[in-house]
Amino acid sequence: MARGVRVGRETGKPPWVIVVSCLAALVSLFVAGCKPATSPVPEGPRAAIVDQLYASYPNEDFTARVTAELTDYGFEVYLYQGDITVDLYRDLPGYGYDLIVFRVHSGLIGTDPQEVASGVGTYLFTNEPYNQIDHLQEQLNAEVQRAKVAEGSSSVFAVGPGFITGRTKGSFDDSVIIVNGCSCLYSNDLAQAFIDKGASVYLAWNATVGLGHVDEATVSLIKNLCSEGLTVKRAVSLTMATEGADPETQAILKYYPRSSGSKTIAELMGERE
To answer: What is the CATH number of the domain that holds 234?
Structure first.
């Protein structure tokens, strides 16, 4: 099971928290086991960074800057780095995060429009090596698929919209979902799945995007949402104005549903009036 690492000030930490190191000389890191939905949680908003890319493409600067923005806003921040599994995705809604950043490989499996519409569409990759036995029922239902980053690379499991709606435990309860990966708003299928599971807004890119570009744009987006307090629509517009579309693919940042555009993240999370 992936272990969340809490980042933030020590505020009445429960006994399962162990101090392990410092991050960028700004905040303390605490190792915390993945908790069931019934575990006590700290007061105030909580955020998670799910970094499936960390094992192959770590970006400590990205992590530090995003963490600083979220912490300054008031979030308790938890990191999941490298060991991202199907079961982590399954359990994630139950951990009570108000905002989740997915830094992951992602893409379309079955790009025929009819296939996308039927649920064989947008998938988030794990680091869990693929085999034909594990998650068998989910594989038979196309809720979990075999995926590769590139030809010749090792196969891993990837989870799709059917998995999010049908297999995850708990609800996202007005969570803000930010997907730092490729083509996660080419279609609305995965976005709608998160909304159906209780998320208030889903922000992602509409085509393949370079990692360096999407990391910088995500930092800018979170700054605009948090420290600038902009509405979703204004935050996305300003991010695109300053960072631009992907220079190679012209991928752009979008949000879903459109009705979320007029609200700030505080309003979307129901945190305050």
So the answer is: 3.40.50
Which is it for the CA torsion 95, 96, 101, 107, positive or negative? positive
- Sheet of 4-7: strand order equals 18-23, 27-32, 4-7, 76-81, 46-51, 99-103, 176-180, 201-205, 253-256
227 near 75, Cβ under 8 Å? no
Tokens of 215: 């990391």
* Residue whose pair of structure tokens reads 């086991």 in the numeric block: 33
Q: Which two tokens stand for residue 38?
A: 């019934």
Q: How far apart are CA 189 and CA 142, in angstroms?
A: 13
195-206 pLDDT per residue, tens: 999 999 999 999
Torsion, Cα of 256, 258, 261, 266 (10° steps): -60
pTM: 0.83
* Boundaries of domain holding 226: 4-36+46-269
